[in-house]
Design a protein that fits this description.
By secondary structure, this protein is mainly α. Helix content is 73%, strand content 0%. Helix 1 crosses helix 2 and helix 1 packs across helix 3. The longest helix is centred in the N-terminal third of the chain and has 63 residues. It starts with a helix and ends in a 25-residue tail after the last helix.
Length: 153
C-alpha cells in the first residue's frame, strides 16, 4: 500500500468518524442546549475534520514535492508549515468563535475531543494495517536476505 493510499483511507474513515461524531454530538448537544448544542456539535466536528484533512493534505503534498523522499528539506518544511498553519488557525478560531453567544463551549469541546481522539485511533489502525516495510532496500535476488548456501552463520 502506498502512502497516498494510506492517506486516502485515513480520510475516508475520518469522514465516517465525522458523521458519527456529528450525529452523536448533535443528539447530546440538543439534550444539553437545544439549537446551540447542535450548532456547537457541528462546529466542533467541522474543526476536527478540517485539521485532519490539513494533516493528510500536507503529507501528500510534501511527498509529491519531495518525490517520495521523506528525508528532505522540502518534506519537513511543508509538514512543519502545515502544522504551524493548523496551530495559528486553531488559536484564531478559539478567539473568534469562543465568545459567540450561540456556542455551547462544553458541547463544542466534547465533539472536538471525540473527533481528534477518534482520528488518532484511525491513524494508528490504518497505518498498522498497511504493512509498510521497515527496510526499503531490496534483498539480493540470489539469497533473498538469507545467508548464501554453504555459509556458516
Amino acid at each position: 500500500m502506498t502512502t497516498t493510499q494510506i492517506m486516502q483511507r485515513i480520510l475516508l474513515w475520518g469522514g465516517v468518524l465525522a458523521a458519527g461524531v456529528a450525529v452523536v454530538g448533535g443528539i447530546v448537544g440538543w439534550l444539553l442546549a437545544q439549537g446551540a448544542g447542535i450548532a456547537s456539535a457541528l462546529v466542533g466536528t467541522a474543526l476536527a475534520i478540517v485539521f485532519c484533512m490539513l494533516t493528510a493534505a500536507s503529507l501528500m503534498f510534501a511527498l509529491k514535492v519531495s518525490k517520495g523522499q521523506m528525508i528532505s528539506g522540502a518534506f519537513f518544511g511543508i509538514v512543519l508549515g502545515g502544522w504551524l498553519l493548523k496551530f495559528v488557525l486553531f488559536i484564531v478560531l478559539v478567539f473568534v468563535i469562543g465568545d459567540q453567544d450561540w456556542l455551547h463551549r462544553g458541547v463544542a469541546f466534547g465533539t472536538l475531543v471525540a473527533a481528534v481522539i477518534g482520528s488518532l485511533v484511525i491513524d494508528c489502525v490504518v497505518i498498522a494495517g498497511s504493512r509498510q516495510p521497515v527496510i526499503d532496500s531490496d534483498a539480493d535476488d540470489e539469497t533473498q536476505g538469507r545467508p548464501a548456501s554453504g555459509a556458516r552463520a
